[in-house]
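Amino Acid Chain and Its Fold in Token Form
===========================================
Purpose: to set a sequence beside its fold so the mapping can be learned.
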Amino acid sequence: MDDGLSPILAVSLMSPNTTSEFHIIASFAGPNLLGSLVQGFETGIIFGQALRFWSSSQRESAIVKACVVYALIVVTLQTSFSFLQAWNSLVVNFGSFVNGASPRWPTKLQPVMNVLLAAPLEGLLIWRCWLLTGKSTPILIFFVLAYVASFAFPIIQVHEVFAVDFEAIFIVVFNGLANGMKAQTYQLEPILICFLVVPAVLDISLSGILLLFFFRSRSSVRARRFRKTLDEFIIVIWEAALPPTICTIIAIAVYISTNSTTLWFILVLDILGPLYVIALFVTLNGFHDVKLRNKEFDLESSSSFSSANATRSDSEPQDILSTWAREASASVSISGAGSSWFSSRIRVPLGANSTSSSSSGFGGSRMKVEREHLRVAVPQAARVLFGCPSLRDGNNKSPRRLPPDAQERGGRRFDSEIEGGDTASAESVSGEEHLS
């Protein structure tokens, strides 16, 4: 038997010795009906996310906006095709097993529609992962081959499906059911399995590299604010990567475990494409939320920074250290997007109190502040992963820097105090001398 026909033939022959057409209606009516309903629900979520994106998209690039428009058009077409197929199967051809079970062109195009919906998100993540790995050639070759394969297998599958005359096949199947025909043996389709496995491998690889990058960066950052921002990035990646990956794995498990004797795995494929669009908007809107929170935090810090210029009270050392660390990290030029800054680390204890050596986070111990490691992972991760020059400013403007003489005078004095462990002399340094 032709492998390309085996799943549908097997579904049609599952009914035991009966001539009732309605006895096997669940084999095609169930996936069609639920697939349309779930896709409609997903499309509603997508348009809600799209409105949220457009309300704050003034600073987004033209490429990102074009990808969003493209994804909205394709997901609208796919959902329309799904409802059209459900209408033809359950309303127009109600009561006719042959006409109702035979897939029409909207259903046959579903594999290609899915890969078209996944293309923007996967292409964006491939580019970012390539930058994060130091523009590694082997990594790029692997991702490009997987990306091309994710297009090739659905196209081959659709070509095979369009070459089949399903109505003629189901006429034979229905006559066989009337004569007590038994289900025939068949094999799993390798093209369909590859069509499911390749995107799953690509999604897991992309998500794994991004998560590994942020976890390693987080482990080397001591500043509480930066760690919190990295945690927010990690959550955004999990929210974007998990749903489509889990959906693909479920489709593979259902298809293989049932030995392709059911069409319910098609339901999982129907809802897979819109999940990629949801993941795209989760990534864009999630990053915008993180950037907005950091901008508000910087505005609050600027207010406290201005008040500290006039006088420095002993009750505010934490704000001074926090501001100094942020300004020092912002004043360092960010260059290179590879693994060379995986080892960047911050050793400024933001919660330390320099007024007392017994209660101080310094503890009177020697501690070296490494200026070259103040290139914090957060602003560079924003620039590399999301194409934003700076995480600190929503308008992509350069952050405010200290005057050169103040940077040299305050930084040199701060370093000498920390390295010498002299908390008494550190206390005598005025706020004007550090931060004027």
Observations:
- Residues 313-435 form one domain.
